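Hi Y.,

Following your request, here is the sequence exactly as I used it, all 936 residues.
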Amino acid sequence: MASKGLLPQPLSPYICHDPKSVASSKGSSSSSHFKRVVGSVSSRVSEDSTMDEASIITSVIGILSGYIGRYVKDDGFRRIVREKCNSFLNRIRTRTRRRDSDDNDNDNANDNDDEVFVKMEFCMEKIDRLIEDHQRTMTKSLRNSIEVLTKIASLSSSSKSYLSSCAEFYLAIAYKLLKNDRVSSKHLLQVFCYSPNLARTYLLSDLWDHLFLPHVLHIKIWYTGEFEFLSNEVHVGDKEKKMKVLKKVYNEKMDSGTYLFAMYYKQWLKVNGASVPPLPIVPLPSRPSCRSSRRMSSDSTLSNSSINPNLYKAVFGLKEEKQKPISLGEQTGILTPSKGLEIDKKLYGDDYKYSSVQKEDMLSFGRSSNHSDKNQAQRLDYFKCLSCRFTPTDNSMAKISYIKSKNASSSVLSNELVEAITTICSSNILTECEFAIRVVTKAWLNSPGDPLIEEALTQNSVIEGILEVLFVSTEDEVLELIISILSELITRNDAIRQIILNSDPQLEIFVRLLKSTSLFLKASVLLYLSKPMAKQMISSEWVPLILRVMEFGDKLQTLFTVQCSPQVAAFYILDQLLNGFDEDKNLENARQVLSLGGLTLLMKRVQEGEIHERENSVSMISCCLRAEGSCRGYLAENINKSSLLELIVLGRKQNSSSYALSLLFELLYLDRRTKITKFLKGLKDGWNGLNTMHIFFIYLQKASPEEKPLVATILLMLDLMEDNHVKGSIYREEAVEAIVASLDCQLCDDRVQQQSAKALLLLGSHFSYAGESLMEKLLLQKAGFHEFSLDDSFPIHKEEEEAESWHKKAAYVLFKSGNKKLLSSLASCVTNSIPCLARASLTTISWMCSHLHLVEDSKFSSMAFSILTPHLLRSLSYDNDVEERVLASYSLLHLTKNSGRVPTLPSLNKDAITHLRNLSLVTWTANELISIFTSI
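Below is the corresponding structure, written out as tokens. Let me know if you'd prefer a different format.
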């Protein structure tokens, strides 16, 4: 069912709540309940706590009643839901009659059951008729329906649970018509309690996706991985049995998780406000015994017992035991609705408005320091003890007086303003400083850009004093004024930026502000304008804080005259976190981004925004891929291929970075040939009506030397997907020619050779789950190398036929199109290139030679023998690694069998037999070669 427009926007596990900042986002109707009590901090804290719970309850009710509200307003939606209810009610009735027909005394049972179904249908029709006729004031009629539905819902037997669920759903509608949203919400949640499977998969699947899926997403990801693994099981009987068990376990976990969180939300809706309910935990199922130890190692970070820390916990400092790095499969979160300003604007549009504190409230702090409240005393003591507390000197006061005297006739630097600035620099009374901030702000706004005011405010001592108030104050209004004034000053005077960074080298002020519910977006703008470096962000709190900004920062923030997108700020900080440290710290931060669901946010940004912002997203996705290669499959499945192509095309036109091309290439290192094929098919759909192959063909003409082997390989792979691979094409010829040129060791530097090695490995198309090339290991296994054999993490699965078909097609095309030039280049690379390219070339020769018989041309086979054999014989030398020697013997065997040049082989190298005898201890290919040579 389509649900866009009337449902609240999809909720995320990242919705957070800061009790200290809730009060600032209350609506005007309730503002009178939260008036400031002078000197009574404890009173305000109590009110904040009440507001905290109230805001969560309000948000839950808003989401659920919003869904029911759609049933009332949308005729099409109502018709679809009604058809669903009728459908499964008919199934229940049929099943009940069949069961009762097997009983001896079933007449009364049938009558009773029929009566229940008739009453249920009657109530459904009555409620729908009231809605359609707009008779929402017929309270008596609704009350009668509610009474009947309540009785039906009380049928708690398992056979009647679906019927009870239907009754609860219509009870929710009835109470919505009576404008009792709280009770309506409780009945809607009860549907998920009675029949979680029915509700999540059929009746209320769209609501479940919004409200429950984030909590059990880790179960879904786990199931996908297990299903994929079992899909490659060789024994059909065992596979079907395991599949049934897996599906049963998955559904039970999803249903139990749905039930737990439905009960959790119901706890929040208790009328008298019970204590805060504990957050449910839905653990991952035990890992099936069929999983191999190596595969378990590859995703060892999947915890069997717990969901990973989510942004709510990470942002607000709930302590967690130190865990191992977390892979993509663990992503989940606990949903904690909030009524914070920016978040609720995102979720509910204009339903909630920020109501500023009235002027008389803002001025009610007073200037006295005679506060008896213990909490207030602690607050002031902390304020006094800050290490950077400025003590005004005669010189500093003289400076401010001098600034005032420069324009004595003006009211800009009035006595009130000078006194306020002095208070900010010297007072130990926080309320006095907060009042002074308002005075300073008023003066700035009344005379925007006044050079005298600007000069007065940009003194080091003033900025430091403002920063102290920013760190200590709990008044959101004051904090927002400070953030705005500092943003203004930074844009006018770059020296302010350095003062802020020097005064707060660990950015503790920003960490505190970014945890706020209502101010974190504005704080991110000030942080961005301050341009901190990575060395100032060593805390592990930074990643969740910045991801939260990225999640909700899609709207421009205005701070007086400064306008900036929080997402721009988030990308700047995230770039520092992923690239600004040493390699280990960068990778650690990237894994944290993955564990907190940042990959989804980054993929979303690839599709929207300015080109440079989208390219930044691609760059950061690449960082995550380097940190955890196992997320490659998830990326390849979900990233928008058309957007990647667009970035490749537009980026090339603007001479910008090639991040999109590099990422696209990396995403082809998939662990199944079918996945690679699927990805390429998605790529072939093109962008904006442009043919994908032509895009890469044009790109290849102007590509840099480092890009050429990557682009050429992608173009060749796309060409090989055509049905008639035997017939040549201009794309193929251009691609093969570019690959040959990139293998020229005399003309290409090390970087180009490294890229060429990656391109050759991609043509082999055999990789592990984390993107490691397995082609060499597969060939060594085929050669019977005793020191290495593929274990269960490198299975020869049912896709072997498709992989073999690919290798045959690729080998044939490379032989025919590359001909002598390609063979000569590969042979030269074996002995003359950097190690990674030499190994990749030898591996490529090995799998190509195993398919040499496909080229039914004796002259070509003879030529291949002449070109490759001398280099392969040299590779048999003791100076080379044993794996290289095994690959060389494997290639030689296939060459000799297909070339008809066997009698000439021994004369080419007198030491060949000696090397082969030594090698015969580890591979059967050496024994067979010896047998061939000695029989001549």
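The CA atoms of residues 16 and 312 lie 5 Å apart.

Thanks again,
Q.
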